[in-house]
Amino acid sequence: MTKQAITADALTILPANKARWEDLQAIFGQRGQTAHCMCQHYKVRASDWWELPREVRPHMLREQTQCDHPRARHTTGLVAYLDTDPVGWCAVEPRPAYLRYLDKTTPWEGRDEDPADDGVWAVACFVVRIGYRGQRITYALAQAAVEFARSRGARALEGYPLLPKPGQTISWGEMNVGSRGAFESAGMRMVHQPFPRRAVMRIDF
């Protein structure tokens, strides 16, 4: 049965430092790929990923987000609430903060762009809490990411979604990078396609 879409107006989306750490933990859950990653996959070099202990990853995310510290001068990411229920997360901050992007991987194939340009921000991933998936929460988060990056002085914002073929089954974990439709709904456009299954979406401010 198709779930009813949750509109952006129904959500409250906050910078992560204004959210509770317990709420962010509820979004990631205790099992599965999101709980295993804790949004650290793009925060470390590819060569370092398998050496990063799983038990360290939640501590890294908590320090990065500064959850429970509303006056913190720095945070990373956005947290979405439906009423009082935490339902979604979006990783967004200056692009060089995602060290894996500095490895000249997917976004740079055939593209003349400086990965270390901190005026360009990036959306690295989305996580939607189990029970709320399939209701277009990532669409609202993508729009909020655009507004957040613009308000923090970004010159541009990028995302790197997968482009599945019609009828192709994509696992939830693969789609954590977002969909082309979610980015397009937020005003971003495809500026590059390094591979058949990958796009670079961008909005310049």
Written description of the protein model:
The protein is α+β, with helices and mostly antiparallel strands. The protein has one domain (8-204): Gcn5-related N-acetyltransferase (GNAT) (Aminopeptidase), CATH 3.40.630. Helices cover 21% and strands 23% of the residues. The protein has a seven-stranded mixed β-sheet, sandwiched between helices. Helix 4 (137-151) links the parallel strand 4 (120-128) and strand 5 (156-159). The N and C termini lie far apart (39 Å).
Short description:
The chain has 205 residues and is of the alpha+beta class.
User: What would the CATH topology be?
Assistant: Aminopeptidase
Q: Give average pLDDT, whole number.
A: 91
Q: Strand percentage, roughly?
A: 15-25%
Please trace the helix and strand order, writing H or E for each element.
Answer: EHHHEEEHEHEE
Whole-number total of structural domains: 1
Spell out the key features of this protein:
single chain; 205 residues; Aminopeptidase; seven-stranded mixed sheet; 21% helix; 23% strand
Question: What is this structure's SSE topology?
Answer:
Blueprint: E1 11-15, H1 21-28, H2 32-37, H3 57-65, E2 78-82, E3 85-94, E4 120-128, H4 137-151, E5 156-159, H5 180-185, E6 189-195, E7 198-204
Parallel strand pairs: 4-5
Antiparallel strand pairs: 1-2, 2-3, 3-4, 5-7, 6-7
